[in-house]
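User: Can you write out an input/output pair for a complex, sequences first and structure second?

Assistant: Here is one pair. Inputs:
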Amino acid sequence: MAGPLSLEAIADLVGGRLVGEGALIIDGVAPVDEAEPSRIGFLAARRYVKYAADSQAGAFLVSTELETALPDAASRVVVEDAYPALRALLEHFHPEPGWHPTIHPTAVLGREVELGAGVDVGPYAVLESGVRVGDGCRIGAHCVIGQGTTIGARTRLHPHVVTYHDTVIGADVVVHSGTRLGADGFGYTFMDGRHAKIPQVGRCVIEDGVEIGANAAIDRGSLGDTRVGTGTKIDNLVHLAHNVRIGAMSLVAAMVGVAGSTRIGKGVWLGGQAGVRNQVEIGDGARVAVQAGVTRDVPAGETVSGFPARPHREALVKEANVGRIPRLLERIRRLEADVKRLGEEG
Amino acid sequence: MAGPLSLEAIADLVGGRLVGEGALIIDGVAPVDEAEPSRIGFLAARRYVKYAADSQAGAFLVSTELETALPDAASRVVVEDAYPALRALLEHFHPEPGWHPTIHPTAVLGREVELGAGVDVGPYAVLESGVRVGDGCRIGAHCVIGQGTTIGARTRLHPHVVTYHDTVIGADVVVHSGTRLGADGFGYTFMDGRHAKIPQVGRCVIEDGVEIGANAAIDRGSLGDTRVGTGTKIDNLVHLAHNVRIGAMSLVAAMVGVAGSTRIGKGVWLGGQAGVRNQVEIGDGARVAVQAGVTRDVPAGETVSGFPARPHREALVKEANVGRIPRLLERIRRLEADVKRLGEEG
Amino acid sequence: MAGPLSLEAIADLVGGRLVGEGALIIDGVAPVDEAEPSRIGFLAARRYVKYAADSQAGAFLVSTELETALPDAASRVVVEDAYPALRALLEHFHPEPGWHPTIHPTAVLGREVELGAGVDVGPYAVLESGVRVGDGCRIGAHCVIGQGTTIGARTRLHPHVVTYHDTVIGADVVVHSGTRLGADGFGYTFMDGRHAKIPQVGRCVIEDGVEIGANAAIDRGSLGDTRVGTGTKIDNLVHLAHNVRIGAMSLVAAMVGVAGSTRIGKGVWLGGQAGVRNQVEIGDGARVAVQAGVTRDVPAGETVSGFPARPHREALVKEANVGRIPRLLERIRRLEADVKRLGEEG
């Protein structure tokens, strides 16, 4: 399955239009500026067009939009949308390596741990009492799975993931290395001259098909649960505080922080390093620009940017207005001169 | 102790005013919008008032301020300050589970490690030589405690905490999973064409009663120590650089970054994703807004926001001024027309 | 080598000018405000001048620029550049402790692991199949080194570092605790109503002499590699996305985030919490201010700040312009009064 393909077979595989030498044999995909002659160069962003002329690639996988950027003679497969095509090719050339499910002899399993069929548990993993793991899961080396945690089928935890007690993880979830699920929320009340901790008794619930990057931290709920919806993808070093709820199919870029009890809809996009304060609501399909700081509700479908985050078109207007100040100053100077002259003439 | 309580007993426990059915039996606390009839719904934020009318909660724990938002017939316990009351109820319904102190047989203890009475050490924890652990501490699975580290009584390190050599942790401290204490500061000097590392020989000192969230990083001092004061609480993914000093009872929200040698007073609040540059001083009781970037000293009691951070009232004035630009433009246009007319008339 | 030194010997060691009592015996370096009489106080920042008069330090290591801030009678060693001198002194007083290379019996070594001479592997470290480790490396406790990873000579991985498969780490690299190298990039394409994962098949390559702080995350490439250049230093909690390339001798401060495929030159400085969007290019020697958000290319040597990041001098001009608004308003009011008067007089 992972062997070389003719360019014609590639066109078939990705449903693309073949131009040029269909018999050419291709053994992998590469960026246009790094491709060797046996590779198909991937060109889907205008920024990389400049590398096309000097590319050593034997052929190109190119989006319709960028086809004309290629040398006329270049053999190519042209597709409407380049990324699904790339995905299909990569799945061919880099099939997931097989694995033989093993419970490593150093794994520590607590009382009443239930493991489904075909579960793999890595060296030094610790599964505390009452943990249940679905069929076909892989628990990486050094993971510590807290008491009563449940994990759905085919989920993969990379090495060094920690879940606190009673965390709920769905099926087909991927959690990358160093991510912590279900730690206590940041909840205190000031009494007797100190910040007294409010017990954090909710859970952290990760629904099916979610992927979470490395070194993220998603806290358990204080009262009630923290919840990440089906199919939502979260990048590295993200912080979701207690009782945050994110709907399905949202995208949360790296280093985003969401404060307590905030509710985020479905299909929302949060740009890198964006922040959202506590107890706000972000509607379905909203987009929050990179580094934006959301301090109040965002309606469904709105795009916001800046701090405090406002509709992006307002930010552009504001920016333009500030840019007008030097010209305003000049007009005022002229007016002052005119008025002075008029006064003297009068 | 964790059993159901009558509403009357709840009013007694939290020192609140009982309205309605005192004999009602309650078995837990829940958010108003998720509460079942056997639960007392917690209502302390105006934002959740909208869920009160349809709530299934058998009764409510409500702040004086929001009492009128409840249906007239709702049984309730009314308190001035809802969070201490919530804390008391949660401590009743969710008592800390007991634990039997054990040194897990897989723990690796170096030479001259001293463990106090009733210490629990989890699977695969590594305590290097000379580590001293106070009475009643819990060292989680996979923690690596560097040479010469000392830990005060009743401190809890959750799984996967790492301390570098000679770290000092006080009593009653909680450190969440994945936090690193005492790593080298970011100290280099450019010589011979490269960034040469300056040895980082100070310590990382965490005083009594501090809590630190997950995946934080608090570096050791370069010369002298990095120090977090008594009772200060720090959220997830916070970075404190070498030689930072924070006073007692401060609150540091998630993803805050503080650069080298900065000194922060007592009772300071740093909002989420705020940053503070190196070598500045922030006075007691100051407040730094979320995402603010502090580049110069902040006096005691001041509230600052924005980048570069300025007193918040100045930011509001500036914002208002920018908002005036379109109106200024209009007034200038009218003036120009008037002056033109006057010139023609004259 | 670590013993006390006379002040004269210190002057010799750092190539400085001796003023005062050369026979004074010094046993360590300390900050001016914490130094005891047997210590040399380090004074290199104007901010600490205020502590000089009351310092208990027996003598001072001071930069030429700040010499006059010292009491006249203070014994001192004066140097042009204080940090290389500090480095030399610290290397004398705090020599790197020796270590006896050991493969801890709990380390798990996969098939065909190759270890060079004098390699140290800590407790519970896991080296998967095909890992190659160069001479004199130290692999900390609990590290998990993914299949096929190669590590150059004298590199040190602190406890709890994870590398994914096929990561490449050069010689003389230092990686601090909790850092993850080579996790999957955040690459999806929306198809069939969900975010479908694009296989991430590139590598994460860390060149010689790099140092990376704690809890950072540097993803593998999607197509092609992510690469950090020789001698570049990276602080805590930094995120580098798939296919980011950073040149040699750059400095990346804490909490910086760089999105996918961005290319950063040599000798670049990225300030704390700065962000860079995907697919931009930052030229050699550029400087990105703390918290700046880079959204388009930055030319070599430029300094940018703010969001969206612009040349810093433009930001200053803009700031000054906004500051002029109240004065503009006043001038408009006067003009309006004048014009009204002129109209009435006319």
